[in-house]
Amino acid sequence: MFCSNTNNALFFFSVDEIPEKIWQSLNCENNKYFGRCFLKSIEKNHSNITFFYIVLIDEDKNTTAFASIQIVNFYIDGIRNDLELLVRKIKNIGRKLHIIPNKKPLKLLICGNTFVSGEHGVFIKKNQNKKLIIKELAKAISHFSSSNKKLKADAYLLKDFVNESLFITNELKEDHYHPFLVEPNMLLTISKNWKTFDDYLASMKTKFRVKARKAFKQSNFLKIEEVTSKNIDEQLPKMTALYQKVADNADFNLGNFNLATYKDFKEKLGENYILKTYWLEDRIVGFISGIINQNSLDAHFVGIDYELNREYAIYQRMLYDYIEIAINKQLKTLNFGRTASEIKSSVGAVPQDLTMYLRHKKTITNKILKLFLQRVQPTPFQQKFPFKKTTPINEK
Known about the structure:
Elements: E1 9-12, H1 20-26, H2 36-44, E2 50-57, E3 63-74, H3 84-96, E4 106-111, E5 122-124, H4 130-147, E6 155-161, H5 166-169, E7 178-181, E8 185-189, H6 197-202, H7 206-218, E9 223-226, H8 232-249, H9 261-269, E10 273-280, E11 283-293, E12 296-304, H10 306-312, H11 314-328, E13 333-337, H12 341-345, E14 350-352, E15 355-360, H13 363-373
Parallel strand pairs: 4-6, 12-13
Antiparallel strand pairs: 1-2, 2-3, 3-4, 3-5, 6-15, 7-15, 8-13, 8-14, 9-10, 10-11, 11-12
Helix pairs in contact: 2-9
GO molecular function, one term: transferase activity
Protein name: GNAT family N-acetyltransferase
Keywords: Transferase
């Protein structure tokens, strides 16, 4: 694999290829999603995905931005991550318009993280012209795709920009990218008044507090075990079997997440990576994972034994456990991610819109793509309001 550098873009096919002086100049690793530990762990454990990285530079050869890119073989009938809900909506019409092939995979270039929701694709240094950076990134992506014959992408996706970023990222429209919304990230703001989990419960309306206590009563039979770098080798096969069971029952899949990545996360990120397993006697019935990044806890994959979920309130207990961790760590926000929006809203999370931008390489196909992306809308759900009138959601 090879791609010639340009006057303002450097291309690397591994985290290890990027020189130390570039990392120091970017100064981006305070955000763990742009750190070598996180990126290398994902890269190392997913050989079926092509990874590359773009470093943008100015005319004086100073670094200005960094982008994390993946190229995946996009099988329309195999999507199971946060793109799943989009695909459900465009699958039939996409095939009719021959945008999505029936058998041959679509090579999809993704700027962002394939396995995690959020703005984790582009890091821009301070005091930069962010609109110009986005334009330069779009040009660099096109240059990469056109100059590398083996890795030509059919479509480009830049994912998960919050509303506050849209005045910048809407520059992509000039390069014929089409914005659209899918399911929102569910975000819980941790109140400064919550010193303990009991404080959180006290802030809830009676109905939701009773629901929480019922979930704890149902899940009282569960034993929760911390997964550490010392016991992960023993736990991982059981977690993988549970994850695979859930994955096999799902409708779509965009490449399974390799749980061996957790071993790297625990070794490199230590206590900043949350990993817990849930047991009923000697049987594993669930696990949670998540990363503490700056002032936020981001929930990642969970595994659930759905046959026992209702009886033992496994998933609901997991949500409360995430909240308790965030409170105990004195964090500011908890990102629950997409899916299961209604139950997440019942524990206090509110929707945060995340905009994606998609462009097909073929001009005519891209024009057709625009027409039906305009019809893609997030699935509506009933937002719950579990807190008393003085809601911690609105506290500053």
